[in-house]
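Predict the 3D structure for this chain.
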Amino acid sequence: MANILIKNGLVVDTEWTRHSDVLVEGSRIKRIARNILPEDCPENTHVVDASGLCVLPGIIDAHTHYHLVSRGTVTADSFAEGSKLAAFGGVTTVIDFANDDKVSLLNSTKNRKKEMREMSIDYALHQGIYAYRDSLKAELKELKASGVGAIKIFTTYKNVGYLVEKREELKAIFSLCKELGFLVCVHCEDDKTITEINDNWKGEYRPIDHAALRPSSAEARAIKYVGEIAGELDMPVYIVHLSSKAGLETVRELREKGIKVIVETTPHYLLLDKSKLEGKEGPLYVMTPPLRTKEDNEALQEALIDGEIQVVATDHCSFTYEQKMESNDCRTIYPGIPGTEELLPLIYNFGHVSGQLSLGQIVNLLSTGPAKQFGLFPKKGILQEGSDADIVLFDPSEIWTISKDTVHTAAHYTPYEGMTVMGKVKMTYLRGRLIMGDGIYLGLDGDGQFVKAHRK
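Done. Predicted structure below.
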């Protein structure tokens, strides 16, 4: 593998931003210094002029569902296609998801890893747990040894077998995860609340009705429920895709009691509201939890700026335009949207162009923070000597419009259609290898590696 010297860029870390050069030897960062001379580098070092560009650590999308088999079909973006669109967005690592077969967590993870062998970017995994069983401690020990560091729990979807109903069993799962060092991630919607609303519903089932059928009160109740379990065990809990002001206020109440609640949100809950569910293309915007109100957007935006949210990820779960438009009934519309590629430009444009977030804070939300939470740091999530040379050259001043013609998802649509943003990825390196440069994709199927989590 060739050595690379990236010169004259603005190198961004969570703690500092400075003009520095970055020397990459093989797959790792060898040196970062103010002025590294080409003649002081190994022979055949390729020099890249990053004048006018920001040099960022590779972005980590901590919540994706590539090649998800659901409801008798499969999502639009395969692992190869997901890798490609990620590279265009400066994303060099994703954390995807393995279902629980309720027999062996290790086999569940092994099967997902086998499916992911075509990835051309790096990846880690969350492992779902859908049921307590006597073998669970032994299963978790095997799972941890395999390099998985995060568990995912659902407080809804009883109808498809995801819900752990009994509180004592859920608490037992939490307790085992604390003992063995797993981070527990939770999809928070209270199943009982949703069931009662649906059982008594007299209205229609249009896309806009999805917001009323799965209200923010259900999210808040579920956050309170799992937060209190975590508090009883004196352990942290990670809330995935926080969508509402009500949920946020519950997080604050738990934190006031000394409970450690780690919060993830997504660009769509920050920037889109439920008005998108109205009109002919409403089905395109159906996901779970549903889009909320502008008031919810504003509450989450303020929380992000104030440091109350630790991670921004995407929950990328893309169905094609045609798949999404097959139904206008929110019960049967395939739920989920694409978003990995748009993550960095959207958050940069929202946070930094507006002057509300520093570049370092954005790096922390999209790279360093996820790496630390999920045990991938310092291999990932930082530009420092010895870390993987996952590097993004980002033009902070390029203005462009997000559209189905300017992004690369196989869904052939973007929920951010028509948004004009400032900031665009120009080059993406994975472990020292250029996988996207100047609009050309250079990723290699199968070149991605599973990244083992190392959690205390």
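The radius of gyration is 21 Å.
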